[in-house]
Specification:
Number of domains: 1
Radius of gyration: 21 Å
Oligomer: single chain
CATH superfamily: P-loop containing nucleotide triphosphate hydrolases
Strand content: 5-15%
Strand order of the largest sheet: 3-4-2-5-1-8-9
Order of helices and strands: EHEHEEHHHEHEEHEHEH
CATH architecture: 3-Layer(aba) Sandwich
CATH class: Alpha Beta
CATH topology: Rossmann fold
């Protein structure tokens, strides 16, 4: 099969593609367009939303689920929404299943209490994300996994978790945490390490920084680029969305808007 290169890619795209940026810059539009283009080229593609306020359902005319849903009219494309609450319950059941068969009902209740907080919900949602990166379950069936992420701050936290939790698992040999009792911690270690390896491998993962021709989102994209490099994600692309071109040379307002965009691109941060 001839490799397909979406706009902005001079080589075939990596298996994992993350679209991130300030809210409202067009991450969902660009990630969806890329996923559809890859599917149209014959690739098997999973489009993943990590945004609780995702509008992928409206854009594609489907009902989002925490299980892959095929997109009508686009053979090869499926969409999944990582639902934090559903992920947390599935995580709790997996941890409880790891307990010794002799564990009492009181001990099980204690573990469930440990796993009832916001920290567990966050790590459970991340656990599903990590499983896709580790090539487990649904993710193994696809040529490309495209992530339509929440605004920048949430994405940076999400992408920093593999390194943080891998270090915690390596150093913690007793007690409990919002991951559950230590007896269940090793259940996650291999998955988190595999996710960390995939994220830091430029042959596997690309981060597309989405911005608009405006100084504020460009400055945020520059800060994000630097923070991602510090996490080991150096394979980055920049997508400038919504570049305005005046169609009427006699319209002073349109000409002024175009000039603002040109100035923003000419003076973008050196990082970009």
């Amino acid at each position: 099969m001839t490799p397909f290169n979406p706009p902005g890619f001079t080589t075939a795209p990596t298996r994992f593609l993350f679209f991130t940026g300030k809210g409202g810059v067009g991450k969902t539009s660009l990630s969806t367009a890329t996923a559809i283009a890859l599917a149209d080229a014959g690739q098997r593609v999973l489009l993943v939303s990590t945004d609780a306020a995702s509008n992928l359902d409206d854009m594609l005319g489907i009902t989002l689920s925490n299980q892959p849903v095929d997109v009508p009219g686009v053979p090869g494309l499926s969409v999944i929404n990582i639902d934090p609450d559903a992920a947390a319950e599935a995580y709790r059941l997996r941890v409880l299943a790891q307990l010794d068969s002799n564990a009492t009902e009181t001990e099980r209740h204690t573990v469930r209490e440990q796993l009832s907080g916001a920290c567990t919900t966050e790590i459970a949602a991340f656990d599903e994300f990590a499983a896709l990166l580790a090539g487990e379950g649904d993710g193994a069936r696809y040529d490309h996994v495209v992530f339509d992420t929440a605004p920048t701050g949430h994405t940076l936290r999400l992408l920093s978790l593999p390194k943080a939790w891998s270090g915690f698992l390596a150093d913690n040999d007793r007690g409990a945490s919002c991951l559950g009792p230590h007896s269940g911690l090793k259940m996650q270690e291999a998955r988190f390490n595999a996710a960390l390896q995939a994220l830091s491998d430029p042959a596997l993962t690309t981060v597309v920084l989405v911005t608009r021709p405006d100084p504020r989102p460009m400055q945020e994209a520059a800060r994000t680029a630097e923070e991602l490099r510090s996490l080991g994600l150096a394979n980055q692309r920049l997508a400038i969305n919504g570049v305005f071109h005046a169609s009427d040379p006699n319209d002073p307002i349109a000409q002024a808007i175009e000039a603002l965009g040109r100035e923003a691109m000419a003076t973008m941060p050196d990082t970009l």
